[in-house]
Every structure is written in C-alpha cells, then in structure tokens.
C-alpha cells in the first residue's frame, strides 16, 4: 500500500512498510503537470500478467510491487488488494502509469484529479 501526498507542485507516492523492499523504491515524486488523470480501477490488478518485472516482486494473487515493462511502457506497481487499486496516468515521465493500492480509491482519485485540474 502507498500513502499519497499532494504538494502545490508535485504528487508524492510514499511506499509503506515492507513494500519498500519488495518494490525497490520508497518514494516516487511526479510534477502535477505530468499527471494526466487518476482513476479507481481494479482491472489491471486482476490481470495475471503485469509485464516483465525489472526490478520488482510478483506473487500472483498476493502482491505486485516494483517496476514492470509491458508493451513498450514502464508501470510502477504496489498492489495487494485489487479492489483498492488506483491508476495514475502520466505523461513525460519514465513510468506511463502508477498502479497502486490506497485506503480509499474514490476519495484519493477525486483529490488527485481536483488538484491536477486547478494546477493546469
């Protein structure tokens, strides 16, 4: 699971607990100008194959964490419970998307989208 922090200029993803080790990252910082949108969507997390993990951890049905490469694009993952998954779509970044688990997907995506809309 991750904790989301929204500063006036950046979206900051804090990877929590042991997931820091499994994902090989403790934090990701993205300029708000590069955030396209956020959506609550369990669909990607329910798929069996997430891509080539480089580096990352994948235990199907249990955990997906780290950097994954699929269809010519990089995605960062940190998901245990697919029902709490959000997808943050990015532009002009190494990762095309951040697929992460949060406590309240609806509230989190609304907060991100509201800040992104006002930042533009």
Description of the molecule:
It is a single chain. This protein has one domain (2-119). It has 3 helices and 9 strands. It has helices at residues 19-23, 43-46, 105-119; strands at residues 2-6, 10-15, 27-31, 35-40, 52-59, 63-70, 73-79, 85-90, 95-101. The strands form 2 sheets. Strands 4-8-9-7-6-5 form a 6-stranded mixed β-sheet. Strands 1-2-3 form a 3-stranded antiparallel β-sheet. The longest helix is centred in the C-terminal third of the chain and has 15 residues, at 105-119.
Relative helix content: 10-25%
Could you tell me the strand content as a percent range?
Answer: over 45%
Strand neighbour order, sheet with most strands: 4-8-9-7-6-5
> How many strands appear in the DSSP assignment?
9
Domain unit count: 1
Unreliable segments of 5+ consecutive residues: none
- Rg is 13 Å
Broad structural category: alpha+beta
- The number of distinct helices, counting runs of at least 4 residues, comes to 3
Instruction: Report mean pLDDT, rounded to a whole number.
Output: 92
Topology pattern, helix = H, strand = E = EEHEEHEEEEEH
* Biggest beta sheet attributes: 6 strands, mixed
Instruction: Categorize the overall geometry.
Output: globular
What is the terminal separation in angstroms? 28 Å
């Amino acid at each position: 699971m991750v904790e989301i922090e929204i500063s006036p200029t950046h979206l900051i993803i804090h990877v929590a607990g042991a997931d820091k080790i499994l994902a090989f990252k403790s934090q990701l910082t993205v300029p708000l100008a590069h955030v396209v949108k956020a959506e609550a969507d369990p669909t990607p997390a329910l798929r069996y194959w997430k891509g080539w993990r480089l580096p990352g951890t994948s235990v199907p049905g249990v955990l997906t964490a780290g950097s994954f490469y699929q269809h010519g694009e990089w995605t960062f993952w940190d998901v245990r419970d697919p029902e709490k998954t959000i997808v943050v779509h990015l532009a002009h970044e190494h990762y095309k998307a951040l697929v992460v688990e949060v406590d309240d997907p609806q509230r989190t995506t609304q907060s991100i989208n509201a800040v992104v809309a006002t930042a533009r």
